[in-house]
Design brief:
The complex is a heterodimer of chains A (490) and B (355). Chain A has 18 helices and 19 strands. With 490 residues, chain A is α+β, with helices and mostly antiparallel strands. In chain A, strands 12, 13, 14, 15, 16, 17, 18 and 19 form an 8-stranded antiparallel sheet that branches. In chain A, strand 18 and strand 19 form a beta hairpin. Chain B is of the alpha+beta class and 355 residues long. Classes of the chains: A alpha+beta (490), B alpha+beta (355). The complex binds flavin-adenine dinucleotide (FAD) (2 copies). One flavin-adenine dinucleotide (FAD) binds next to strand 3, helix 5 and strand 10 of chain A.
Amino acid sequence: MTTKPKVSKAELAEQFRAFIDPDYVITDDETMKPYECDGMSMYCEMPLLVVLPETVEQVQRVMRICNENAVPVVARGAGTGLSAGAMPNKEGVVLSLAKFNRIVEIDPLARTARLQPGVRNLAISEEAAQYGLYYGPDPSSQIACTIGGNVAENSGGVHCLKYGLTVHNILSVEMVTAEGDVVIVGSDGLDSCGMDLLALMTGSEGLLGVVTEVKVKLLPKPEVAQVVMAGFDDVQKGGDAVGGIISHGIIPGGLEMMDGHAIIAADDFAQAGYPRDAKALLLCEVDGTEEEVHEHIAQAEEVFRKLGATSVRTSQSEEERALLWKGRKSAFPAVGRISPDYYCMDGTIPRRHIAYVLTEMEKMSEEFGLRVANVFHAGDGNLHPLILFDANVPGEFERTEAFGSRILEMCVEVGGCITGEHGVGVEKIRQMAVQFNDEELQQFHDVKAAFDPAGILNPGKGVPALRFCQEYRSLEHKQHTHEHTEAAHG
Amino acid sequence: MADISQQLKEQVLQARDSGQKLNIVGGGTKAFMGREADTDAGTLNVGEHTGIVDYHPVELVLTVRAGTPLSEIEATLAEEGQCLHFEPPHLGAASTIGGTLACNLSGPGRPWAGSVRDQVLGIRLLNGKGEHLRFGGQVMKNVAGYDVSRLQAGALGTLGVITEISMKVMPKPAASLTLVQEMGMDEVIHYMNSRAAEPKPITAACWVDGKVYLRLSGAKSGVEATAEKWSGEVMEEGDKFWQEVQDFHHEFFAGNDVPLWRFAVGSAAATPELEGNWFIDWAGSQRWFRGAGELKDLEPPARAAGGQVSLFRGGDRNGEVMHHQPEALKGIQRRIKTAFDPDNIFNPGRLYSWL
Ligand SMILES: Cc1cc2nc3c(=O)[nH]c(=O)nc-3n(C[C@H](O)[C@H](O)[C@H](O)COP(=O)(O)OP(=O)(O)OC[C@H]3O[C@@H](n4cnc5c(N)ncnc54)[C@H](O)[C@@H]3O)c2cc1C
Ligand SMILES: Cc1cc2nc3c(=O)[nH]c(=O)nc-3n(C[C@H](O)[C@H](O)[C@H](O)COP(=O)(O)OP(=O)(O)OC[C@H]3O[C@@H](n4cnc5c(N)ncnc54)[C@H](O)[C@@H]3O)c2cc1C
């Protein structure tokens, strides 16, 4: 943990203005306001100040000054994070990478792209398209989120099962350490000598270093992609169908599931022609060569029919494929339309427990008096329950949080985890104590100290202080859950 | 099939109390890797910590004890039509999954199917304090806490004893065939990379002795259609060829008289001009070199090709065998080592003399 900063706001700003364009050293509340939170807007905090450096050398100098003076630093990409990872520290600096927005180089033969950290995820694929290439991980926020943020969160998308997460799609990262050194982790080769620090950096939520450049792998754009939509009158059947496809030896490019509430909300929003009476909907996209897709689509249709699908429809054109996906991709705003506010959860479970988990969630929904709609990266077991609430009703957000906690604890209970892709940040820091014991959490703290001895990088996020965990676990029902955890782990 | 984790833990605690060092041994089949083991150290044998803990084919997830031989794992997966997608080298019947992860060894399909590091989802680890910890999980996606599981890949056991591994497994491809044709080393880098940039079911690409080998696998129709479009002869015993490459049984790898160097470099980078023989794998990302030389002389050409070099087998294993690390990364890795193994019990000096 950090000690009290040794400088005042004014002194710090003056030091930064000596080498950063004064316009990019922001100290007034009005201009700082947009930085007070990320995509998880229920958690906000005003920082001491915001800096937007333009060169790696400036980042180094910012880090050195902050390290010497024990000033917390929170790196920030586009601020689309959903766990309050980029929420400012009130005694610290927000270090925005927004000026680092250049695609440095694309090598079409080696199929790689060198990127500054502020490059938007979608911009990579747009630029690579001229070579018939694209960047694999495609978070739903890809229009806005940055590659630096993707590395920090190990972001995924609908194509993870087949093409992997960020950690599988990057070659190297240049970063500035807490002490202001520039290091390159990884290389153009597929592995490097020594410990795999690249894996450690990926998903480290801005706690281990500031990413200043990323080299990613690019993939050839598949010849064809087609999607099969299948409706089921029961979630169990839908869940079984996911396993059925995979047991058949098909690894779909994307395999998504929605529950009854999400189907209706998404169909109202996108008019995608979803079966509105279905209790579960699967979207199964197969991509590859023309022959391969043809073969696999026929098999997928057959598997779904055999496993009791009440409707099966296969896209016959690019327009139709886009339409079927439109409903899924707009599920969040669609749910936003039927409720004043919604809270997006992010747990992962072994797929075989999907029906159990959804049924339990329905029960909790009644118990808490809050509606919940589910969209689900079914292929890799990543749930996104959306809890609907109204922030203007006193106590409703607190109830929502409690409901959310129960969902995450259930994920751990069935052998899953508390976050599949959104990260721990501030939001899930309490549930870390459910997934990990004190020795494990202490090991994380020790890893952090190896990179950041003074503890200035994003303090208070990701890994909870141990005393805090004991308090959380000692709440009666939590203790009960932890025993389950041990049992589930076997 | 036995769980000896309690025994392993006691051995670690004892070593800690008595100030003894421990060489971690799985199957003992990769003893040639890394620097020479410390001869004063005791042995911690994980080879008897075996057995499949959990396997659900529909989940595509397998959990095993670290001493389990690869052969046993592969036999179990084969019954369900699944496989270890990273094609681990079998350096002997006793090769274990723990040693495979610690060495981060993967076979010819690596650029497409991923490495052992890529497929790992979670581990249990005995650290130097004798704490038996659990990281990651048994699900495909898990971003809670740092990725300590993948950190072990390539650490050669310097951070602790891996006791259990959960990893992703994949269906065996329905069909596969290999195309072979003659080609000079000067053309082959461009050729392999161009092929890899096409949206075709390519799953391996290597070059040796003036011939380039491409493997296609996946749905039968897609494999056959691609083979018709691409040049090259369909090879009679393609699978056997790749198995030999995977297990270092290809004649290129025979013998230890001439040192075997591994260059992990940019796939499209020009091959360094050195006196010796090359085996180019992973469509250019992994290049084996047989030739005399010293690490310090091979590092600049490796760096020029965007990557690193290490001594894989033979040569002088008392000096450093891994590409040297810049000071800042040395510092971080030393501190990570201390974070996991404060008394420096495990595999002292195996990875680097300073670790
Ligand atoms: C509508 C919506 C849909 C989403 N869908 C998905 C999805 O499908 N999959 C998914 O994985 N996520 C999804 N997200 C979450 C979010 O978009 C991702 O986590 C994304 O990677 C965050 O990127 P960012 O640039 O916005 O990072 P920020 O929110 O700015 O920061 C996120 C974290 O990364 C750190 N960070 C940012 N840049 C750097 C850097 N250069 N160096 C070091 N640390 C840094 C921050 O400190 C913070 O801890 C979604 C979010 C929204 C709002
Ligand atoms: C009596 C004796 C003397 C030996 N003398 C030498 C010698 O002089 N030189 C030499 O190089 N080797 C020597 N070895 C062998 C060497 O220590 C191991 O064989 C070697 O580490 C590889 O073991 P392995 O087959 O499990 O290999 P692998 O299982 O192939 O292991 C390779 C690497 O992974 C590590 N490892 C394996 N399993 C785990 C695990 N579960 N957790 C963490 N790390 C793991 C090992 O420590 C090693 O670094 C000796 C072994 C014995 C028993």
